[in-house]
Amino acid sequence: MYGLIGTGVVAATAAVKKVAEEKLVQVEFAPPPEIDLPAEPPPPPKPKPKKKLAPSGPRPKVERAELAPPDEIPETALDESDDELVDSGETGPLDGYIDGTEGGTGGDAPAPSTDGDGDEDSKAARAAIVDRPDPPEYPADARDQRVEGVVLVRCVVTVDGHNEACRAIRGHALPRDTAVAYVATFRMAPARRPDGTPTREAQVFPVRFESRNL
């Protein structure tokens, strides 16, 4: 019996020792396979530095040429137009003065044209107004429609000082006939050549219609 117990103890001790030895065995696992990671994208390019613009100084001053007024009115014939001028506000009776001067003298010469006889440079004196009557009545139709403005009348000054072939070349249609009839009554001093010989000359007369007498 004691022999069996001793044998059992020895067997148990051997079993425990074997288990202890088995527990001391270290298990080494194989390393995991390497995984190829995707390459990191390259960093974005750095923005280019903005160029600094030099501060602009004041703009250089540009010298403007001063235009001197012409010594004489260009001697260009005016084209006749049948278009009516736009009404310009308050209107009234005919003021009837020439060249913007009420009650002017006979030496006031209107703007000349080049349609007369001979070259303009060959004339010693241009035609001039000697006498003119009082302004006529303001046209009733123009007054009713309150029309005012300037009518240009072109005439040929004859050698005996009369205005002939007068016609309106610019201005409102309503007062044109009155302006033409008025200018045709002017007494003129004819243009003269250097030797004193009178000569025909075309001239343009402005007749102003204003409302100052209302």
Give descriptors for this structure.
single chain, 214 residues, alpha+beta, TolA/TonB C-terminal domain, 5-stranded antiparallel beta sheet, two-stranded antiparallel ribbon, 21% strand, elongated
Instruction: Examine the secondary-structure arrangement and name the CATH architecture of the domain at 94-209.
Output: 2-Layer Sandwich
CATH structural class of the domain at 94-209:
Alpha Beta
* Biggest sheet record: 5 strands, antiparallel
| Helix content percent band | 10-25%
Q: Would you identify the CATH H-level superfamily of the domain at 94-209?
A: TonB
> Which structural class do the helices and strands define?
alpha+beta
User: Count the helices. How many?
Assistant: 3
Average pLDDT level: 67
What is the terminal-to-terminal distance?
165 Å
Cα-atom radius of gyration = 57 Å
Number of strands: 9
Taken in chain order, the helices and strands follow as: HEEEHEEHEEEE
Question: CATH topology of the domain at 94-209, anyone?
Answer: TolA/TonB C-terminal domain
Shape: elongated
Percent strand equals 15-25%
Uncertain runs: 2-7, 72-115
